[in-house]
Structure formats: structure tokens, C-alpha cells
Write a structure and sequence with these properties.
The protein is an alpha/beta fold. It has a domain at about 20-140: Rossmann fold, CATH 3.40.50. It is built from nine helices and six strands; from the N terminus they run ααβααβααβββαβαα. The chain is globular, with a radius of gyration of 18 Å. The model is unreliable at about 100-105 (pLDDT under 50).
Length: about 180
Amino acid sequence: MTSCETHPNLPIVGIEPALKPAVAISQTKHIAVMATRSTLASARFAALLSAQSSQASFVLLPCDGLAKAIERALQNPDASKIIAACASILRAAGIFDGQKELFLTSKPVDTLVLGCTHYTFAAEHITTLLGPGVTLLDTGTAVALQTRRVLRGNLSNQPMQQIRWFSTGQTDLLDAAALAWLGL
């Protein structure tokens, strides 16, 4: 049973990697996707990939540890650790040589999809690593705007009493992120 089925009155906003928009804007039709290993292994992602795989070549980058590195940046805002984590993931996949060149075998990747809400906070660092020849697609802003629309539509006239966060990860890190990034 999904969360939507378990809590039908609870507004839920999800994120999906932007594969279809990536295919639409890519000139080379060689696209990289950075996401968590669980996202890349999910049935939903497999369906998204299957729907687009005849139109482009995709290299999937399971970014083990990147979300945690971004979370830890709250306690120690040293961007070099996030940059190193991103560069390590790209190098391990064989698509980044450290010289602002993103490639898939001999075919250039011109579009990189960020498939995790955490990665929005590293987008500037990733763009710096890759340079201007790679378009970064990030759905974080769209998800945030949709969340705002949903929340505005469900606001009550009562003063806010309590904010409750739910996470599959550590809630203390979520609290710190909300304070730092959302101003709450």
C-alpha cells in the first residue's frame, strides 16, 4: 500500500527525474542522470527510462553518499566536500575527467539530470565542475513551487502550532535543513 492510499487526505508532492524534458532539450541525445541508488532501482524510474530510452542514450549515476554530503554541509559549510563528492561520482562513472569534459564513451553528454531533491543544493557546484557545455536539469524548483501551491490550498485560518517533518533519513538533519534552507 502506498502513502497516497494509506493517507488519502494528506497532500503528497513527489519528485521524478526529468528524463522527458532532458530528451527534449538535448542536442546530442546523450544524457546523464544523477540520482540515489534506490531511485535508479525503482519501478517508477524504470518506467520513465523505458519510455524515453528509444529517443536518447542514458548513463545512470548512482550517487552513493552525495545526499549525506549535502546534509552534512549544514554543519560544516565547506563546499569543497560537496564538489569532491560530485567529482568522485562523475569520475567513477567514467564520464568526467576533471577537466570540465563530460562524455559517454566517445559521445558527448550535453544534459545532466538531477534526480534527487537534495541535489538542488549542489547544483551550483555541479555546474561549476561541468562548465557551460552541459545543461543541468533540476526539478527542485518545480517541486518547491508545487509544494507551495499545495500548502497554500490547504492552509487553515488557525495560527501555526507545530511543524512535523517526516523523513526516511535522520530527522535532526531534516530539521537543520529546514532551518537553514527554508528559514523555518
